[in-house]
Backbone:
């Protein structure tokens, strides 16, 4: 029933088992290293994606007021927006902000220029909004930026996109009746 092994065979079986065990440990260590490196890479990528997503949602402009300059009593030749940081926003560089105008006369996209479009109102240095109390005035000339003045009853969509990719959309509806004298109308 019991067979006795000879001394020579017993040592050879132990060495073979040891070699297989060491090989299994090495394979497991390599696999664990690959998994740890992959997990670290995925964590870094997830953090970057989360931060970018947060910026695209929060780093946007808030339109405080909007008005238009009435030209000749029947059209608006200039739009004025007073903007601020939206709650929770980081610094917003207005020089890196693009504007998209979409309406009956077509679609126009351009970047804001500090000399042509942006006026410093309160607290803004170098046209960068750094605090929630900062205000800047953005002026858009309809003949220069849009291709023509806005007529009575005309609609226009204005979209501001910051350098982080956050967008703010404003719907402009020109009243069906404008005053005869040159004036400003709240839109």
Residues:
């Amino acid at each position: 029933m019991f067979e006795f092994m000879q001394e020579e065979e017993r040592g050879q079986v132990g060495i073979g088992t040891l070699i297989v065990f060491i090989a299994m440990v090495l394979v497991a260590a390599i696999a664990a290293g690959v998994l740890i490196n992959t997990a670290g890479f995925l964590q870094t990528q997830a953090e970057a994606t989360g931060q970018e997503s947060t910026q695209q949602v929060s780093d946007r402009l808030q339109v405080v007021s909007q008005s238009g300059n009435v030209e000749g009593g029947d059209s608006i030749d200039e739009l004025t927006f007073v903007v601020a940081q939206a709650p929770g926003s980081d610094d917003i560089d207005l020089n890196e902000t693009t504007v998209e105008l979409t309406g009956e006369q077509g679609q126009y996209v351009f970047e804001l220029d500090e000399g042509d479009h942006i006026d410093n109102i309160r607290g803004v240095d170098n046209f960068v909004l750094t605090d929630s109390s900062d205000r800047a005035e953005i002026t858009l000339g309809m003949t220069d930026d849009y291709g023509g003045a806005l007529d009575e009853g005309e609609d226009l969509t204005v979209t501001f996109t910051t350098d982080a990719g956050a967008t703010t959309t404003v719907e402009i509806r020109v009243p069906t009746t404008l005053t005869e004298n040159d004036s400003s109308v709240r839109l």
